[in-house]
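Bit of a strange request maybe. I'm writing a small parser for structure token strings and I need a real example to test against, not something I typed by hand. Could someone generate the tokens for this chain?
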Amino acid sequence: MKPAVSLSAALELDRNAPLVISIVGGGGKTTAMFMLAREIKALGKKVLVTTTTNIGVPEPGQCDIFMLEGCTDPGQLAAIPAATITCLGGGLIEGEICKVKSVDPAFIDELYAQNLFDCILVEADGAKRKPIKAPADYEPVIPTSTTLVIGVIGLDSLGKEVSEENIHRCALFCACTGNKPGELIDRASIIQLILAEKGLFKGAPAASRKVVLLNKADTAELRLHAEQIAQEILSLAAPVHGCIVASLLQGNYKIL
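Reply from user aminoacidic:
Good idea to test on real output. This should exercise your parser:
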């Protein structure tokens, strides 16, 4: 296990190749996406942040350029300078919480094919602000050009009751993990969710690299749980290429 100074360093990103990074799961996807965007921008790269689901409107300072459905002309996007973060959405959903609408994944594939950005970051899953989830049949929506899929799990789910209050799509979670409502979420639950065919990495392109981000390891106890989960996952013939134990809040990352 080795520490890293940033999330992008922990992910061991290839800085010389265009990237499409899709982020799925629950427990810190949006935080991870904008954190990566800032780190990659700091390298002088041209970054696109977008979504194939719905996300909150970017907060002040999270992006340099905010574009909606009327601004999806590849020529206009090509004119964006380096060392910037562009947030692209398919429109706005007005309501108590204003949200950015999804972008067609085929358009994201087109942007990648035209090499218009050094890195495209895609929030490809929704979790209703829950720390853990299982995907429905129609999700996640991962562009086929995705080179890296980050599966996020919030460790604050450990020890919580298996219920809709704590899990997004509780019934599907139980189908993946073998849990029953009323039981407690434990390390075995998380391991089964990661490994299940219809679990954390459902729909990930076969050629993409898959990394588990065990987030909210904010205490020594949670870090220990996370390390044990990661070690077991990596000891198996699992379709996972790496695990990161992280506290995005504290800025701590360890690669396993």
